[in-house]
Amino acid sequence: MALNLGVVGKTTDASSYEYDWKDCVLYALGIGARTAELDYLYEVRGPKVYPTLAVVPAFPANIAALSEIGGNMLTLVHGGQRIVVHRPFASSGTLRTTATVTGVYDKVKFGQVIVETKTTDEGGSLVAETVWSILYRGEGGFGGPPPPKLPADDVRPPERAPDFTHEEATAETQALLYRLSGDVNPLHADPAIGQMAGFGKPILHGLCTYGHAARAVILHACGGDGDRLRVFDAQFRKPVWPGDTLVTEGWKEPGGRVIFTVKTKEKGDAVITNAYAEISETR
Question: Is 243 a known active-site residue?
Fold first, then answer.
């Protein structure tokens, strides 16, 4: 099915996301939070909310936008993700999100769709923005425009040893846990779908790996305080399977910028590259 270029510039109706502390804790567990991160897991302490939760209320609006694109959903892969957090998430409330398809591009072998979302709180204040880069394998070559450069395209680690290395094994049930936050794509649960999609078995959500990387950056560059993370931008390179060990390496730069990469320990494959975070000195 050809990609529909006519949806570019169209904005979805606002989707509503009502949540409480249990949803925040479930998300934290889904991205691998450990007992040492109790502030994010125990309601008596708030709980605090990981800033990458921004992708959760944005997910229904993103899906609504993609449903207008067309294309074979079995060819779809997540190419990259950016979040910009304007204020910390409360541990409960109602959020509203709209999504806009800002571009459909021709990468010859792939079709690329860019979806941007805005999430506001009950008072109408902007809480977070997200940018989703979605690739459709085998659906390029339609004569559309080439993609513009994204902010992370030219990001490379400096030629020195990383300032921190964070190694963490994912659970074999990690994808099954993460999907309870709202991304119930059967690709991450059903062996038959994983086989049909060419992966052999279910793979881990890219956003689960993304969340693991964010926790690593927060632990090593923010003193564990996720409220200091303002921007988190990454491009996905290869799939991760539940049970893989993720190794996040980070390089601290002037002005609160952290460049990072993620690889799997088992194969040494780079699974996240062209990635950086922007961190404030205070909340």
Answer: no
